[in-house]
Specification:
Largest sheet: 3 strands, antiparallel
Number of strands: 5
CATH topology of the largest domain: Arc Repressor Mutant, subunit A
Helix content: 40-55%
Distance between the termini: 34 Å
Mean pLDDT: 88
Number of domains: 2
Low-confidence stretches: none
CATH superfamily of the largest domain: Winged helix-like DNA-binding domain superfamily/Winged helix DNA-binding domain
CATH class of the largest domain: Mainly Alpha
Strand order of the largest sheet: 3-5-4
Radius of gyration: 19 Å
Structural class: alpha+beta
CATH architecture of the largest domain: Orthogonal Bundle
Length: 169
């Protein structure tokens, strides 16, 4: 496949997909080299960086997604409601604890926050930001262990957890 065609296919996929595009998947399914996929993504990113474009290419969750340029939000809101679901303070506190201490149990989260976190935790699970990843066998009742998801990385514009835990630049 030639680069212009690959670029068009990737741009269309990025527009239609709800999940990040992964270089490895493209290479496997379209039988192209990783360097060719990276070159196509770099060119898409350069095209979108122009001032007259409304989207940007963002590298998140180990892949690439299209995102709206933040400087357009005011005008977009005037056109009509833009879907931006906010998290409560309790949900954000709970999410921050999980992101930094994962995997972690609900009793451990409650101890850190000093209050019951079961409702904010259920909100985070329902939004796909957190999931149960196992159980803590050595504790009474074998409580669930919770960790962040790929959706968490995508929503917060992170490529990996190392970016919030100080392991990566």
């Amino acid at each position: 496949m030639r680069l212009p065609r690959l670029k068009a296919v990737l741009e269309a996929y990025l527009f239609l997909s709800e999940k990040p595009l992964r270089v490895e998947e493209v290479c496997e399914k379209l039988e192209v080299s990783p360097s060719m996929v990276e070159k196509a993504l770099d060119e898409i990113q350069e095209d979108l960086e122009r001032e007259d474009r409304g989207l940007r290419l963002e590298r998140v969750a180990g892949g690439a997604v299209l995102a709206t340029k933040e400087e357009l939000f005011e005008e977009l809101n005037r056109l009509g409601p833009v879907r931006r679901r906010r998290l409560s303070r309790a949900a954000l506190e709970t999410l921050a604890i999980i992101a930094h201490r994962q995997p972690i149990t609900l009793p451990e989260i409650n101890a850190i926050r000093g209050r019951d976190s079961s409702v904010p935790l259920q909100t985070l699970i329902s939004r796909g930001l957190v999931k149960a990843v196992g159980r803590r066998r050595e504790l009474a009742g074998r409580p669930f262990l919770y960790a962040t998801t790929e959706e968490f990385l995508k929503v917060f514009g992170l490529n990996s957890l190392g970016e919030i835990q100080g392991d990566e630049a």
